[in-house]
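To: structure subgroup
Subject: Chain for Friday's discussion

All,

I'm putting the inputs and outputs inline so they're searchable in the archive.
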Amino acid sequence: MRLTSSSIGDSSPPPASPRSSRLWALPVIVVGCLAIFVFDRTTGTAPVQHLYYLPIILAAYHFGKRGGLTVALAAVVLYHFANRSQPTHPYQESDIIQIALFLAVGAVTAKLVHDAGRLRTLAMTDDLTGLHNLRSFEARLLSLVRTSRQANVPFSLLVLDVDCLKDLNDQHGHLAGAEAVRTVGHIIAVHLPPDGVACRYGGDEFAVALPCCTASRAEQIAAGLCEVVNATEPLIIGRRWPIGTLSVSVGVACRSMQPPGPVSLLETDEQEGESLFRAADEALYQAKASGRNRVCVFKALSLSSAHSFACLESH
């Protein structure tokens, strides 16, 4: 799915969080450690002892640094009882190296997983506002459209931008404009419904996906955003600005429930998502043309049929 011509690269969704599979990981780790202990006690050879690395890595991957080091310590204990027939006998150099490797593998794996998670988050996030970026949003939108079609539930999309941002940039500099955009992004994040997904896809342009949301409910949410933004006293370039300094215009489009029928192919999901975005974008332009600081709703029997707009001015 491509919402703008500037979108590049693969927009596939990021890998699932390791936390989603913790329920099965814990028994696998426990059983793995015990099985390796039995083999280690029977053979006492280094190749078998190296197998302790597997549950240590698995624990660090799913449970982070604490999990990795905990299982590494458990591996040290199991290694001790499997190979120390005389507990008072001093450790040899090979024993110390093996124990150090257990701990190092747990710590290093946890650090790599943590860094990979941070990179994945950075790849999904708009650095100015903390919302999703376009690449991440496109993937989420495709998934949400597909789900809404399969469940035959309404789905709404808001497209909005900051009014008169160019004037703010020209008069007070681009830093002021960036802080205005950041302020609006934070307002969207705070007032976003729990199941909503928002992104900044351009300089001052935002999109908000609202699953299981009718057109009337989406219009209420959009009007609420307009009112909150316009009633804010933004902190820009180090000083508090008066109420009414910022405003947004919002376009709304909704995919309504359809008569029962077969679910279309993936290409249709993509096309419907793009059509929904274009419809909301048209409604946004109508809101801007009607005087800004208002909501316009795309009205049509279908996203591709003849249409009109219903605009509501924010108060």
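Points worth raising on Friday:
The two ends are 36 Å apart (CA to CA).
Residues 93-124 form the longest helix (32 residues).

D.
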